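Student: I would love a firmer grasp of how sequence relates to backbone shape in proteins. I am handing you a single protein, as its sequence and its fold in token form. I am told such tokens are a discrete way to write the fold. I hope you can help me see how the letters and the tokens relate. Take your time, and here it is.
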Amino acid sequence: MFDLDRWQEIISALKKNKMRTFLTAFGVFWGIFMLIIMLGAGNGLRNGVTSDFGDFATNSVFMWTRSTTVPYKGLPRGRQFNFKRDDIEALRREVPEIAILSPRTQGGGGQEGNNVVRGTKSGAFSVMGDYPEWNIIDPVVITQGRFLNNADIKDKRKVAVIGSKVQEILFMPGEEVLGQYIQIQGIYFQVVGTFKPNSSGINFGGDKASNIFIPLTTFQQVYNWGDIIGWFAFTSVDGVPASVVEEKAAAVLKKRHLVAPEDTQALGSFNLEKQFNQMQGLFGGINGLIWIVGIGTLIAGVIGISNIMLVIVKERTKEIGIQRAIGAPPSKIISQIITESVVLTTFAGYVGLVISVFLLEMLNKVLSASQTTGQTMFKNPGIDFNMAIIALAILVVSGAIAGWVPARKAVSIKPIDALRYE
């Protein structure tokens, strides 16, 4: 398998014209270098965008009410209506495809001024009336204490879970937070937990770190919301598209609130799964385009090697004729030329692969060192091991293809004609 003489011939052939060999190899080097760099950059962009989702349930649907646009059963167009507490059980009963259901109400924020007070400190924050299930759909990192639980909902407890910015504004650094009371729109609530956001790409109610969670039932009672629910969030069971849940839930809610089935404007909704799939499709297209451009560049380099190998074969026509005359079979000539092409291609491509991976790793370290927040559009650029193996396989196959045409050209010349060649 290992023929020292053959390898000496290969090295000697490549050394005869070093500049030509270098320029030829550079085409392959540049092709694989650009392919890996572009793939790494594409992965970095994908990682940066998807990291903004954190652990947010990507099979989620959010639904709220708007004005009706179609008169129905004697009710006028332009009618306002609200979801009610009874809708919770109706949805659970009539839409079995719902995995997690979380109703929500919302109040407060900068437009209402400082709505939260503690002693001499105050601030404007979004107050969310929630169920414990919300922390499954959009999980937060609990830094102290706990999140809301079912007992809070059942007993209508005046408890609150506050975000990191709320804690920063209302409490001194190092000050005990759990068990303390804050005043939300004139009502005292005991702090039972603190949190920091786990995702930044999707926001409901503004800056998540400025949110305050209280039990939905408590919100309805102390702020005179009755049984009104602001909007619903739900996820689909495994194997069922979120769009199915969206369609069935909309039909149930329209029927319960006397909304015309054909009124597509009466309910607003946001299907996160659809948006997420579109984004994944976009990145799939970008990745495909990268492969096309990268492989096209690589093919250009391979064609250059094939042309140079044709020149080398022409220069060595007499030598090949002598080998054929003394009994060298065509397979030996072919294998030698293909081996030269594969060696040149693989070596140049391997150097390009190593340098590109090294640069991506250096870029990753620089980004990690300079990153001060969790929000970034570019994160962890690089390629996985399988991608590197595929790139190496492409190099070997490309080298063999690049050498095949010159090799066939070499053996097609008759030995007597080759010996006469000047």
About this structure: Residues 60-271 form one domain.
